Amino acid sequence: MGRTTQAVVATVEAECRRRGWNIAELERKAGIVRGTFYRMRRGETENPRRKTLKKIADALEMEVDDLLRGEAADPERMSGRFGSVRSGEQRAFDRATNPVVEAVARDRPRLFADWSSDDWDELYSTFGTGGELNSQGVQVAAEAINRKRDTVHRLHVVMETHLRDVAIEMVDALFRMVEAKRDRMSADVLSGLKSPSDDSPGSR
Description:
Elements: H1 3-19, H2 23-30, H3 36-41, H4 50-59, H5 64-69, H6 75-82, H7 88-97, H8 100-107, H9 117-124, H10 135-158, H11 164-193
Region (Disordered): 183-204
Protein name: Helix-turn-helix domain protein
Domain HTH cro/C1-type: 12-67
C-alpha cells in the first residue's frame, strides 16, 4: 500500500470512528460501490481515483487534499462550513428534550438498524408541533429519516449509471419548483410586512 493510500485509509478510519460509522455506512453515504474502501485497506487499490476520493471526502465533510495529507477534519471548522457537526452541548440538549426516543429505540430496534450518529442527531433534534416528540412522533420521524436515507442511496446508485443525466434533470426541475415556492412565500411575507400607507397616493 502506497503512502498516499495509507494516509487516506488512516484518516477515513479515524473519521468513521469519530462519527460512529462502520465502513458499510461510509460507502453508502459516499455513494461508492460496496467493498471499495475494503479493497483500499487491503492494498488492492494502490492509486484510488480522485472521483472516488472526492465522494469519500464529501461524505466526511472534508477536502480531498486534507484526505490525501492524512489530516482529520476539524469539528469546529466543519461546523462553521457545513453546520452539520453538532456540539456535545447541542446533543445533550436534544436528548434531554426528547426522552421518549430512547424508549422507542428499545421497543423497535429494527427501525433504527444501521443508523449513523448523524441519523440519531437528526431524530433527537426533531420536535413535534407542541414541543418534544411523543412515541408516535418518534416512529414517524424515524421512518421519514429511513426513507430519506434510502432515497439518497438510490440516487447515488442511479448517478453511476447511464441514467445520470436524466436524474440530474429531474432533480434540477424539482429544485426549481422548491425555489419558486420559497420565493413566493418570501414575497408573501414581505407583502404582509408592508405598511398600508406605503401604497397610498400621499406616500409617494
